[in-house]
Amino acid sequence: MSQDTGTVYTETTVHSASEAFMKDVPYQTAIIVLDSGTRLTGRILGERVSIDDRVGRVEIRGGVPFFRKIA
Amino acid sequence: MRPVAVAGIGKTAFGAFPDRDLRSLAVEACEKCLKSANASPAQVDAFFLGNFAGPSFVGQNHLAPYISTAIGLEGVPSTRVEAACASSGSALYHAYTGVASGVYDVVLVAGVEKMTSQPTPKVTEILAAAGDCAGEIKAGSTFASLFAMIARRHMHEFGTRREHLAAVAVKNHANGALNPDAQMRKVITLEQALAGKPIADPLNLYDCSLITDGAAAVLLVSAERAAEFTSKPVRVLGIAQASDFVALDQKPDITTFPAVRRAAQKAYAMAGIGPADVQFAELHDCFTIAEIIALEDLGFAGRGEGGPYTADGHTSRSGSRPVNTSGGLKSKGHPVGATGAAQICDLVLQMRCEAGQRQIPRHSLGLAQNLGGSGASCVVTILGVV
Predict the structure, then answer these.
(1) pLDDT band of A1, cuts 50, 70, 90
(2) In chain A, domain spans
(3) How far apart are CA B315 and CA B320, in angstroms?
(4) What local confidence, expressed as pLDDT, does residue A3 receive?
(5) Which of B14, B84, B85, B167 has its CB 3.0 to 4.6 Å from that of B214, i.e. a possible disulfide?
């Protein structure tokens, strides 16, 4: 687990996507407030998350941060 | 600054028109507008065109002279304005400054978008370019998903419910069903609105505006010359444009749009009125949650109370302040670059008592709110019969 942790500010599961993301639906995106205060939009891997859930950044793929729920 | 009036309006029907190209739509709206003002092309001093993505949707750029020459405007300055879904609201704002300052007497403003020639995933991609392509869009966001995240947060903070979102869709469809120019003239029930195909949770198909071809036009003139063109001039009492971050994740609070609040404050001050004086409005319901937040940001409903305010019927045609009697973007349709100008046309139709079956009794002071992206641009316009 990366040291980059944060909290889910808001989220959605996308069912209707742009061409480039059609292969991924349904997928979850979220705005994460990192513990450093930085806000960014990332993708959620694994279990779906809700507002106020804690998440950790597990990888950056193509410039996009991917997060996973911290139990 | 001198007073400015709306002397003419013109619109195409909104819908999917496979046999029409972008230019023919714009020309139809402009010619109807000039005709409604008994104006000739030779009287027009300048042309401002709102268009979001003509180059992406139909592969044509340099659109303003492409259209103005087709209308027969003789060599006048022709400028395209792009501010995402607020493109023609912004075109109107800049045209207004030209007339109010005395640079021009007569300006034609148009908006146009031709969207249905592309398949939905491509349309989704083109629209997404109004967001931050280096961040949120690269992560897979669509405009529906950005507004879905806004809705989620609004629900979390204020207890807004799915039923409140659905109430916006039901109301706007009821209005659009009476609008002969609307794209989706279909009454829907609350149950239908709640059961639509999921798009981006918690938004479903019935929370989303339409993919539309269409154009609209407005003729602005100095108030002192309005009588040359029409016996029913409508005065621009206030107009303002404001801006904010393009990326949703840069906003500290996504349950309110600072650009809407800023533009509204300026427009209200300019008109010398407050929210309570506004009798009816055309609001930017690109998604149902957007109309709810607009009610709050414009001061019609308290913070977090836009949902219950809608469900209680205040914004229906028989309510205290009807909103989107045209059917809104939800039912009338949302040809992105044309929407701001179309909102002005719909206010003026009510003010001239030409709104047919959807005519409302109190119609002398109306407001239009045109939003771009997830709130990075906003134009608020207040019109009045004086």
Answers:
(1) very low
(2) 5-69
(3) 7
(4) 60
(5) B14
Pair of tokens at residue B182: 């609307």
Cβ contact B148–A39 (<8 Å)? no
Name which of B150, B201, B249 is nearest A13 (Cβ-Cβ): B201
B341 contacts B110 by C-beta, under 8 angstroms: yes
pLDDT along chain B (386 residues), means of 10: 97 98 98 98 98 97 98 96 98 98 98 97 96 97 98 98 98 98 98 98 98 98 98 96 98 98 98 98 98 98 98 98 98 98 98 97 98 98 96
Lookup: tokens for B118: 């592309």
Cα distance between residue A57 and residue B178, in whole Å: 51
Distance from CA of A5 to the nearest CA of B (A): 17
Q: How far is B334 from chain A (nearest CA, A)?
A: 18
What is the number of other CB atoms lying within 10 angstroms of the CB of residue A23? 8
DSSP H helices in chain B: 22-36, 54-58, 63-71, 87-100, 120-128, 143-158, 162-176, 190-194, 258-271, 288-297, 306-311, 328-331, 339-351
CB contact under 8 A, A41 and B139: yes
Between B34 and A71, whose confidence is greater?
Answer: B34
**pLDDT value at position B74?**
87
Taking the domain A5-69, which CATH number applies? 2.40.50
ipTM associated with this complex: 0.97
State residue B386's pLDDT score: 87
What is residue B52's DSSP assignment? S
Provide, as residue numbers in chain A, all residues whose Cβ is less than 8 Å from the Cβ of B256.
Answer: none
How far A3 CA lies from chain B's nearest CA (Å)?
21
| Active site residue ranges of B | 85, 334
Any idea what the Cα angle at residue B134 is, between residues B131 and B138, rounded to 5°? 80
Q: Which residue of A has its CA nearest to B132?
A: A41
- How far is Cα B125 from Cα A18, in angstroms, rounded to an integer? 5
> Contact, B381 vs B281, CB < 8 A?
no
- Domains of chain B (ranges, CATH numbers): 4-119+212-234 (3.40.47.10), 130-209+236-384 (3.40.47.10)
Token pair recorded at residue B164: 């409140």
Q: Which residues of B touch A42 (CB under 8 A)?
A: 139
